[in-house]
Design brief:
Its main location: secreted. Keywords: Disulfide bond, Glycoprotein, Secreted, Signal, Transport. With about 190 residues, this protein is of the alpha+beta class. The protein contains three helices and nine strands; from the N terminus they run H-H-E-E-E-E-E-E-E-E-H-E. It has one domain (about 30-180): Lipocalin. Strand 6 and strand 7 form a beta hairpin.
């Protein structure tokens, strides 16, 4: 009689523990005074952090640009271009303004049933750097991504620290942070 009671207790405890998955950290608010007209233009993506990135992904990330074009209705059309050898990979999406300035929903141009994604500008001085945070909700998990953007290859002092602190505040480790491999890259626009 003790064995069935012990088994029942163990199974009940297991079920309770499975229901106690830690809740994800709260997202930081978007910038208080976001100015879309100052944010638009070309940015270099100097770093990415995310819960889907692993150390082995570092070799896959090449330098790339993100160009944000503001439309009259407050949407941003975003074009990305990444060089891979002599080829240029491009992709685009639209950022649709949400209730708060600097916060957007992402339209990837796919039909109904697509994963819901939200993004926000967490911090920017508009002329040198920006930090963006995105969260995409799939049927099974939330995919988090933090982007470190720069207008050029030089970051102002403390920006990298902000990027690491924001990443850690979202529960990410150094293994979840990747930087593009710039060893054989030059910023020529002939490919892209």
């Amino acid at each position: 009689m003790r064995l069935p009671c012990g088994l029942w207790l163990w199974l009940s405890l297991l079920k309770v523990l499975q229901g106690q998955t830690p809740s994800p950290p709260t997202l930081p608010p978007p910038m208080q005074s976001f100015q879309g007209n100052q944010f638009q233009g070309e940015w270099f993506v100097l770093g990415l952090a995310g819960n889907s990135f692993r150390p082995e992904h570092r070799a896959l990330l090449n330098p790339f640009t993100a160009t944000f074009e503001l439309s009259d209705d407050g949407r941003f059309e975003v074009w990305n271009a990444m060089t891979r050898g002599q080829h240029c990979d491009t992709w685009s999406y639209v950022l649709i303004p949400a209730a708060q300035p600097g916060q957007f929903t992402v339209d990837h141009g796919v039909g109904p049933g697509a994963d819901r994604e939200e993004t926000r500008v967490v911090n920017s001085d508009y002329t040198q750097f920006a930090l963006m945070l995105s969260r995409r909700h799939t049927s099974k998990l939330a995919v988090l991504r933090i982007s470190l953007l720069s207008r050029n290859w030089l970051l102002p002092p403390g920006t990298l620290d902000q990027f690491f602190c924001l990443s850690r505040a979202q529960g990410l480790s150094d293994d979840n942070i990747v930087f593009p491999d710039v060893t054989e890259w030059s910023p020529h626009t002939s490919v892209c």
